[in-house]
Amino acid sequence: MTRTAIPADELVSKARAVGQYYGFTPLSALLVRTRGARPKAPPVALPSALALDSAAEIVAGFLRQCRAAGCEPSARQPLFLWHTNIAAGRPAPKKAVVQFHALGADRALADTVVMRALLALARDLFHEEPVLRINSMGDKETRARYARELGNFFRKRAPSLPEDCVACAKRDALEAAELAIAREYADDLPAPTEYLSDASRRRFEDLLEYLEMTETPYELARDLISRGGVWSDTCFELVLGGRRVAWGSRYTDLARHFFPAATPAAGALFHIASEGAAAEKSALPRLRFSFIHIGDEAKRLSLRLAEDFRRARIPLAQTIGVESLTEQLRIAERHGSPYLLIMGRKEALEGAAVLRNRQTQEDIVLPLEGLAERLKSVA
Fold it and tell me: Where in the chain is the domain with CATH 3.30.930.10?
């Protein structure tokens, strides 16, 4: 039977571990590092026309804290962050939320890293295999086209649909579609992917290709839609025991109100009832390895290796979503780990990685098969 409540301490500790292996920094750590380092940013007043649903309200709160920390994510220096509403030493909120976000990264890699982190957390907490369901609502052009098609659908099918769905469609066709899905009248609803713009279709195809190449299990879900105007392109959910436990999407239109430059953004919210109190913050074990990867082949392999490292509890961190070698090395320097594990395109194709002792600069080539066990002997 799927758990319906989880101790706050367990939830935080497992989210922290997932974040480390998939390259997500806790927002709380970023806030501590930047406190007092720069003038306080003025508050953001969102336009009244920008209607936010409950998920978007949570994401907007997260973005306000990012702004307060002076975050300026970019393609060169993207930010992969995780956050929770559970505070150390305090009673857990009745509804705990764990968030994973990719800011400044526009490629399918970012969406995939967020999804893989969610899958890992769900497996750890529930000891079951969650179902990842994916769809795409496209960009503004797509959404407008899809809304018109939905309006036509509800007018033509009015006699065979519930009256409240038909009445709702006159006001908001997407809301009416959600209502029809909830009432199980969605079999004949038009699918949003049939109306994708060329740009949105390419983005969705890139994502599906990335999921396939990283062996990430998923299902296409034509009945999964995002109604709020801040969401765009890919939307997805995690389902366990017939219950949604997480929801995610791209939200670049919302992020642009919080950062000085246009900022691609994707994120997800994991919801679960919590109990007890989280322990006071404790020092994490010192990291022994920083995993550096260059090129798509290495990135894809690093996603699959993350689970091996987690299961073996290797004291390792990596920044999968960061593509710049310079930025990865800067982050590794901050971690202070004595070893670098390096994989470029050549190593990825050969099924190997280079272990570098940062003090002696000695390099050892290690095969990927059984890599976690070999690192244990070094750790």
Answer: 5-137+197-275
Please say whether the beta carbons of 104 and 74 come within 8 A.
Answer: yes
pLDDT band at 275 (very low <50, low <70, confident <90, very high): confident
Q: Where in the chain is the domain with CATH 3.40.50.800?
A: 289-378
Give the chain's radius of gyration (CA, Å): 22
Cβ atoms < 10 Å from Cβ of 338:
15
Burial class (CB in 10 A: 0-12, 13-18, 19+), 233: buried
Global pTM? 0.92
CA distances from 152 to 48, 75, 166, 220, 320 (A): 29, 40, 11, 24, 44
pLDDT, tens digit (0-9, with 9 covering 90-100), for 166-223: 899 898 888 898 888 888 877 788 999 999 999 999 999 999 999 999 999 999 998 8
Cα–Cα distance measured from residue 122 to residue 136, given in angstroms and rounded to the nearest whole number: 23
Calpha distance 150→144 (Å, rounded): 10
Q: For residue 146, which of 165, 172, 181 has the smallest C-alpha distance?
A: 172
Architecture of the structural domain at 5-137+197-275: 2-Layer Sandwich (3.30)
The CA distance from 17 to 230, in Å, is: 30
Alpha carbon distance 96, 3 (integer Å): 14
Is pLDDT of 376 > 80?
Answer: yes
Confidence of residue 285 (pLDDT cuts 50, 70, 90): low
Question: Quick one: average pLDDT of 112-139?
Answer: 95
Tens digits of per-residue pLDDT, 58-88? 999 999 999 888 888 988 889 999 999 998 8
CB count within 10 Å of CB 32 equals 11
Q: Which CATH class is domain 289-378?
A: alpha beta
